[in-house]
Amino acid sequence: MPLVNVIDPLQDARWPQFLESRHDASLFHSTEWLDALRRTYGFQPCALTTSRPWEPLINGLVFCRVQSWITGRRLISVPFSDHCTPLVDDETEFEPLLSGLQEEASQGKQYLEIRSIAGGAAMAPGLTVSGTFCLHRLDLRPTLDELFRTFHGSCIRRRIKRAEREGLRYDDGTSEEQLHGFYQLVVRTRRRQGIPPQPLSWFRNLIACHGENLKIRLACHNGQPVAGILTIRYKSTMTYKYGCSDPEFHHLGPMQLLMWTAIRQAKESGLLEFDMGRTDWSNEGLLTFKDRWGANRSTLLYLRYPALTPPSRTQQVAARVAKWFMACAPDRVVTAAGSILYPHFA
Q1: Torsion sign (Cα): 26, 73, 193, 205
Q2: Options 2.140.10.10, 3.90.1150.10, 3.40.630.30, 3.30.720.10; which CATH number does 5-132 get?
Q3: Mutual orientation of helices 158-165 and 254-268 as an angle, nearest 10°?
Q4: Which pTM does this prediction carry?
Q5: Residue 317 parent element (H or E)
Q6: pLDDT tens-digit map of 42-82
Q7: Is the pLDDT reported for residue 271 higher than 70?
Q8: How is domain 151-229+241-270+310-337 classified at the architecture level of CATH?
Q9: How far is CA 234 from CA 37, 158, 178, 192, 239, in A?
Q10: Does residue 122 come out as left (phi exceeding 0), alpha (psi in the -120 to 50 range) or beta?
């Protein structure tokens, strides 16, 4: 079996060059994303490769070590990503990289999770599927007119025109004012979902690490943000990573306006794909919303070693109590809870 080497993707100059050469390298493999994870949560990224230190990289499996007294110790490829497919050409390249992580997981009494787009080389002995999700990606190669015609008539095209007719103002950037307007909507949306919001520092670090490739996009009504999305450009793809809104204004079409503006700008910039992110198969409303943009579906596989054990009844009850708490607690308590808990989620 080939010798496996460990590298630091934040320090090794070969890593960005390697990502540029791989069609399957995504935002979540990038040094910018990994650096934001390190700055916010203290996760130290590593990558395994069979390439020797003086050779160009020919493969790579990036991951972070997560240590939590709440959720346990684990190796994640990579935290808070929708997908992070192993950058290998076939299973023979993948197996030695995987073996090293499996050995570390076994010795350290922890588990390993890999988040891969189905069809890659991520299925290997010892891995079991712990979860599946839907990934929507929109092909930007057709003309803008062709893209617009594929959108659902009443739910997308008509809502975009309604937003324009109602005079919703579009705004984008990364200023503190725009960040705070966006974050207020994040807190409101996550509360509605019964889950804590990400720490404000996470968004600040994403901005610092991605620079002009990141945009906060806001739809405003009478000067007040009523919906927002955060997009990040990487290589030939624009990724829609976070979205939030005030339900009182949904009928005006602010999310449709934001998505269409982002898609149009991505197309005008010469990008080839608009990644709409992962969706739980049980979330029929969000699945339908993304389908109506004409996006293509694919399957995300979350693979685990050793096999996932079902949550205990105590854990199930704790999850329900936490969801109730997030829906009822004051904003300052909810945001504080998010800052404390998010490093344990990964």
Answers
A1: negative
A2: 3.40.630.30
A3: 100
A4: 0.93
A5: helix 313-328
A6: 999 999 999 999 999 999 999 999 888 777 788 999 999 99
A7: yes
A8: 3-Layer(aba) Sandwich (3.40)
A9: 17, 30, 22, 31, 8
A10: alpha
